[in-house]
Amino acid sequence: MTRFFGAGGASVIAAACILAIGSASPAAAQVATMAATPTISSLPATQATTIATPATSVSVTLPSARAAILSTTPRPVSGATTAPAGAVAVRPAVTHAGLWPLVWANMTGAALDEEANCVATAVYFEARGEPFDGQLAVAEVVMNRAASGKYPTSYCGVVKQPWQFSFVRGGQFPRINTQSASWSYAQAIARIAKQRLADALPDDVLWYHADYVAPGWGRRLSKVEKIGAHIFYRA
């Protein structure tokens, strides 16, 4: 599936229940296994490049009272960080494992509004089966585009813009298996992204493509990061 070809314009019972949902993705199998573990004392650090560095772990209390370690930290309220002179501003590392507590906490809640639903739809069709950090990155590209002044100003407008997302046909979305684990995860990712509970990419990243293709426009942009099966760019 081509994507953005153009620079224009979980307890054990709970885990088993998740896996019982139709169309469970490889990511579902992994996170369900994690949910069956009473306590996660630590998670592997990541060696991120360009836009992310390993972050200090913080404790997160889940609704089930299971403790976990989240390998990401909130963005400073002031929006400012102290860094050596000449250093490139970075954000805390976000990993698939580190995002699991947030995904678990946001899989249920109020129904998504139309705009958030469009973000979740893009995540579902573009990145289901991807690690959670890769799904979050796709959601953020949609949001970044809407805020950039270069694309439609609404999330739905961005997703439905002609020739941008290959799953969109005539401005219409294909049928979603709303009973699937993938859709539950996509909705959670949309909630996380919209509330800015975690960040995977800088605000100026507006383009990406699958790693098995090499579109010509990629040579005119600056590669930022490869997350999951997608490569992300800024101008």
TrEMBL record:
PROSITE patterns named in the record: PROKAR_LIPOPROTEIN
Any GO molecular function: hydrolase activity
Keywords for the protein's UniProt record, in alphabetical order: Hydrolase, Signal
Domain Cell wall hydrolase SleB stretches: 129-233
Superkingdom of origin organism: Bacteria
Signal peptide as annotated in the record: 1-29
Coiled coil ranges: none
This protein's name: Cell wall hydrolase
Organism: Sphingomonas arvum
Highest classification ranks of the organism: Bacteria, Pseudomonadati, Pseudomonadota, Alphaproteobacteria, Sphingomonadales
